[in-house]
Amino acid sequence: MTLTVSIDTTSSVPHYEQLRSQLAALIAAGTLPDGERLPTVRALANDLGIAPGTVARTYRDLEAASLVRSRRRVGTLVTAPPATLDRAAVTEAARHFVRIARDHGLTDSEVRDAVAAELVRNGTASSPIR
């Protein structure tokens, strides 16, 4: 499996949060389907040029959110998110938002910051933004 995730070293968003949000988005969109095995912590850390502890923290956060489960000798597997909302509508809204942001010249970091700020305003952010 080839993962299409990247780390922006110039962003103020911590590496683990960048990785967590990208993987969560891939899972929510169905790009990473139920049962898909994620790369090992060491392999993904090596591919991204980050510390293994960063990837391990990301995997723990994803497991706490019930998006993956980790088992010894099996690895880290994607668990399908509950179908409690129309994910296609949310995905389309996200595409639309990104198109507007691009039209206005926002960088990836600025787009993430805008979403994070809106989550904070709505009181839905699950962790403080650093």
From TrEMBL:
The keyword Transmembrane helix does not apply. SMART domains: HTH_GNTR. Keywords: DNA-binding, Transcription, Transcription regulation. InterPro entries: Tscrpt_reg_HTH_GntR, WH-like_DNA-bd_sf, WH_DNA-bd_sf. SUPFAM superfamilies: Winged helix' DNA-binding domain. It comes from the Bacteria. This is GntR family transcriptional regulator.
